[in-house]
Design a protein that fits this description.
41% of the residues lie in helices and 13% in strands. By secondary structure, the chain is of the alpha/beta class. Strands 3-2-4-1-5-6 form a six-stranded mixed sheet, with helices on both faces. The two termini are 27 Å apart. It comes from Dactylosporangium vinaceum.
Length: 195
C-alpha cells in the first residue's frame, strides 16, 4: 500500500503538562527545557538518515518539535491536520483525580473497551484510527520516500497500527516516550528505535 523506503515516527518533546500528568488532547502547553533538548537530540540522530520530508500535527508542541528538527535538516515542515492528537473532549486539561471527581466510573468504562470508548464530547481510538489512515494516505501522496512524522502518543499508536498492521489491542498497549524516534519499515512491518 505504501511505497516509502522508511518511516521515522517521533512524538513531540516533553511539555509542562506532561510533567504534571495533565491530559492535553488538543489543548497545548509549551515544551520544557527537557522537551527542547529531546527535539535537538532527534535532529542530531536524524541528520544522516536521508529524511526527505517532515510532517507534523498542527498542535504547538508538535510544530515546535518539528521546527527544531526541520531547521537542522534543512527541510520545511508540512502540517497535516489529521495528525492532531485524539480529542479528549470534556477530559481535556484535567488530572486523573479531577476526571474521577467529575465523571465517576468513566475511566473504568474506558478500560473495558479502550478502542471504542469515546471521550465525552471527543473522540474514540476507533475515530482516531480512521483519521490516522487518512493522514498516512495524505503523506503518501507527497514525493517523500523517507518521511519523518511528528505527532503524539495516542494518535501515534494508531499510526503504528496502520503502518505495522497491528491488532488494535496490541497497538493500544504500546507507548512512545518523548525521547524515542521509531524507525518503521513499511514493507517488512518491522519497528526499531533509532540509536
Amino acid at each position: 500500500m505504501y511505497t516509502w523506503d522508511t518511516v521515522f515516527l517521533a512524538r513531540h518533546g516533553q511539555t509542562e503538562w506532561n510533567v504534571l500528568h495533565r491530559g492535553q488532547g488538543r489543548l497545548d502547553s509549551p515544551l520544557t527545557p527537557a522537551g527542547l533538548a529531546q527535539a535537538h537530540r532527534h535532529a542530531s540522530a536524524l541528520r544522516h538518515r536521508a529524511v526527505d520530508g517532515v510532517f507534523a500535527s498542527p498542535l504547538g508542541r508538535a510544530v515546535a518539535t518539528a521546527r527544531i528538527i526541520g531547521d537542522a535538516l534543512g527541510l520545511a515542515i508540512e502540517i497535516v491536520d489529521e495528525l492532531t492528537e485524539i480529542d479528549h473532549g470534556a477530559f481535556s486539561g484535567l488530572l486523573e483525580e479531577e476526571i474521577d471527581a467529575r465523571f465517576p466510573g468513566e475511566r473504568r468504562r474506558r478500560s473495558a473497551d479502550k478502542y471504542r470508548w469515546r471521550y465525552p464530547g471527543g473522540e474514540s481510538y476507533a475515530d482516531t484510527d480512521t483519521r490516522a489512515a487518512v493522514a498516512l494516505r495524505r503523506i503518501a501522496r507527497s514525493p517523500a520516500r523517507r518521511p519523518l512524522i511528528i505527532s503524539h502518543e495516542m494518535i501515534g499508536r494508531m499510526l503504528q497500527r496502520n503502518l505495522l498492521a497491528l491488532d488494535p489491542k496490541v497497538a493500544l498497549a504500546r507507548s512512545h516516550p518523548h525521547d524515542v524516534v521509531f524507525v518503521i519499515d513499511p514493507v517488512t512491518r518491522e519497528r526499531h528505535r533509532l540509536e
